[in-house]
Amino acid sequence: MNFTILGTGSAMPSLCKTNDDLSKFLDTSDEWIRARTGIEQRYLCGEESITDLSCLAAEEALREAGIGAADLDLILCATATSEYRIPSMACLVQERIGAQCAAFDINAACSGFLYALDIAAGYYARKKVKHMLVIGADALSEIVDWTDRSTAVIFADGAGAAVLGEGDDLLASRIGARGNRAVLYAENVKGNSPFRMRDSEDGAQCEEQYIHMDGQEVFRFASASMTRELKQLMKDAGLTGKDVSYVLPHQANRRIIDFASSKLPEIASERFLTNIEKRGNTSAASIPVLMDEYNKKGTFKHGDILLLTAFGGGLTTASCALRWNGKQYNK
Ligand code: ACO
Q1: What is the CATH number of the domain that holds 11?
Q2: Which of 73, 139, 321, 330 could be 129's S-S partner, Cβ–Cβ 3.0 to 4.6 Å?
Q3: Residues of the domain holding 171
Q4: What are the pLDDT digits (tens) for 77-117?
Q5: Annotated catalytic, 253?
Q6: C-alpha span between 257 and 253 (Å, rounded)
Q7: In angstroms, rounded to a whole number, what is the distance separating the alpha carbons of residues 16 and 248?
Q8: Is 188 a catalytic residue?
Q9: CB of 283 closer than 6 A to ligand 1?
Q10: Sign of CA dihedral 51, 56, 61, 67
Q11: How many domains does the chain fold into?
Q12: How far apart are CA 257 and CA 222, in angstroms?
């Protein structure tokens, strides 16, 4: 036994910024960003915090699932940008929504939500839980260097959530990592220990915690791994391209999604769902937000087979195949 998805929810910040808004203070253009990434606009935390968004997404997912916070047995939150190092974001959410169960965070960058689903499957296999809340949430705008045009234009903020119940709808799940600090990293707070003797790993006395990314290297890794992981996932689940109703890929760059789609001609390209145009790359929130959006549009029907696939800092990869049995919405 593993799980079924009972309900989904998502929340975006109220502040929406277009490419033209960014080109007012960065040396960039709407034309460049659209052509190289597919992004037209993104939502960024202004007044609200990532915890606020996580709670909104969680409460919506609970409503849709038809259960209360008191019914939850575990809360898992995937994030790399929790407001606090202590307590975890999962504990902040637990307190605010009024749950009483165990709660913890995991960090696998953009792959985090799918890592969390994989962990969730273990709790169901051990029959430790009936209802779980899994959240993917990030506010990368808070660790982006807003003078660095190569990262500032792609990252964005948001939160997505799913409430799980007992079921058998996880058909296969794969997680992986190929440790590589150099291509994508953001350092942590250093503190002021009088005993600290070492510099940061690259030798510099680095005080800043902004995100650094070798975009081309990540692009190469992402394009190759998304295709490879989707093929292997279908094999693991005993599926062919014809069985697949929709692919929900991490929304990092439209060109990465198009590349993966071109290498999997047996899945029609319109089956690859996107919202990167309007939302940018929201890291761990990317897939649960995409899932919630298309769920509420009435796209998914009972029995549909969904392939979810992500890659991210670490470097990490994660993919899973799900049978959709959630609440049915009208188109
Ligand atoms: N506006 C205008 N020009 C730009 C911008 C910008 N915002 N950013 C870079 N450029 C310039 C560069 O300086 C370079 O100029 P040059 O040719 O004069 O040297 C030129 O555009 C091409 O730069 P590239 O880096 O080669 O651009 P590329 O086509 O690779 O696109 C991008 C960059 C969008 C970052 C791409 O590499 C990418 O999407 N990589 C993957 C990133 C990703 O998926 N991250 C997800 C993981 S995130 C996580 O886990 C938290």
Answers
A1: 3.40.47.10
A2: 73
A3: 1-331
A4: 999 999 999 999 999 999 999 999 999 999 999 999 999 99
A5: no
A6: 7
A7: 23
A8: no
A9: yes
A10: positive
A11: 1
A12: 9
